[in-house]
Write a structure and sequence with these properties.
CATH topology of the largest domain: Leucine-rich Repeat Variant
Strand order of the largest sheet: 1-2
CATH architecture of the largest domain: Alpha Horseshoe
Helix content: over 70%
Number of strands: 2
Strand content: under 5%
Oligomer: single chain
Structural class: mainly alpha
Shape: globular
Largest sheet: 2 strands, antiparallel
Number of domains: 2
């Protein structure tokens, strides 16, 4: 019955929602809080916030083509679009709990069950409806409304969820990469790199956000058109301190992003530990059915090797570690895009 509530009752529902939320939080009853929030938010969405089917009319041609292959995803996409629309409502209501829960349930969770082609559709769709702009607006709202968005559990949860989504969506959608740049999200991520550098090693929350930032920038750099735009910015200087971090995983992703943004004669030299790490995870990725390991696909690792070969010392070190044999495995057993990238990397490895 609540789902049929008239739009005029929405403000009453919102008032009840806020009152009950405060009661549950003061009692420390997190389980009931989450349950109650989700139920009331769905009620609010079903009044006058749910998007119409016309949301599918103005999509890009590539997104429409993907949608034709996966029509069963329409309800998931429509729910995601409703949540993106609701972000503005919750921002105006200064209610971060609602936003954090909805973004998690309707944007972050679905991607975990989607296949790679379905995930590409999901990311393209979110790019088409300007989700990156909503993320940017919400983050700026939090920054101006709270003295410390990191120490506050709710605001940090929002930031972390946005960051995690940016990594995932940028990894599978060139369109989303473009949107992250034009919407100002990459600028936000660069601010994280600059502002959290000194606390990175000691502060888990800030290190988490920096990790999301570097991985997102790396994913954006893999797209040629986006890379050309990012090259003209100061990102390479913001990444420099992270090339010296103790964690090999941090050095690797910072190194890959930096190599894309560098000219060949400025490609950084890879330290021994990181070089061994690249070879190790590439070999393990090639053994997996998904051709991925520890968050890296064999494709992006081979792309990275090709880029790092701009440095002659790196090229020699890769050859000493039999990188060419691993790249050939992808060239022979991979899909069309993987074989194309592997062929290019082989040429780079064997260049004089």
């Amino acid at each position: 019955m609540l789902a049929k509530t008239s739009p005029d009752s929405k403000m009453f529902l919102a008032a009840v929602y806020k009152a009950m939320r405060d009661i549950y939080q003061s009692m420390g009853d997190q389980g009931n809080t989450a349950k109650y929030l989700s139920e009331v938010m769905r009620t609010l969405q079903s009044t006058n916030q749910e998007v119409e089917d016309s949301i599918f009319d103005d999509l890009s041609l590539e997104t429409k083509s993907l949608l034709e292959k996966f029509p069963g995803l329409r309800p998931t996409l429509k729910q995601a679009a409703t949540t993106v629309k609701m972000l503005e409502f919750w921002r105006n209501a200064k209610d971060l709990n609602a936003a954090a829960l909805l973004v998690w349930t309707d944007l972050a969770l679905p991607r975990r069950t989607l296949s790679k082609p379905e995930l590409k559709l999901f990311a393209h769709f979110l790019a088409d409806i300007r989700t990156a702009e909503q993320f940017h607006s919400y983050i700026r709202f939090m920054e101006t409304s709270y003295n410390d968005v990191i120490s506050n559990k709710v605001t940090f949860r929002c930031l972390a969820t946005f960051g995690e989504l940016c990594v995932c969506l940028a990894d599978c959608s060139a369109l989303m990469c473009q949107q992250l740049v034009t919407a100002g999200m990459v600028a936000v991520l660069c601010e994280w790199l600059e502002n959290f550098q000194e606390q990175y090693a000691q502060d888990k929350s800030r290190s988490t956000l920096v990790t999301y930032a570097i991985h997102t920038i790396h994913n954006c750099c893999k797209v040629p058109d986006v890379r050309a735009v990012l090259k003209g910015q100061t990102i390479i200087y913001l990444l420099a301190p992270y090339l010296k971090m103790e964690a090999t995983s941090t050095r690797l992703v910072a190194l890959l992003a930096t190599s894309y943004l560098s000219d060949d004669d400025e490609t950084p030299q890879v330290d021994t530990d990181t070089m061994d790490y690249i070879i190790d995870i590439l070999g393990k990725a090639l053994q997996e059915d998904s051709r991925s390991f520890e968050g890296y696909s064999a494709l992006e690792l081979v792309m990275g090797i090709g880029t790092l070969c701009g440095n002659a010392a790196n090229r020699a070190a890769f050859l000493e570690r039999s990188a060419a044999a691993l790249v050939e495995k992808l060239m022979e057993g991979g899909e069309e895009e993987e074989a194309k990238v592997a062929t290019s990397t082989i040429c780079r490895l064997l260049a004089d």
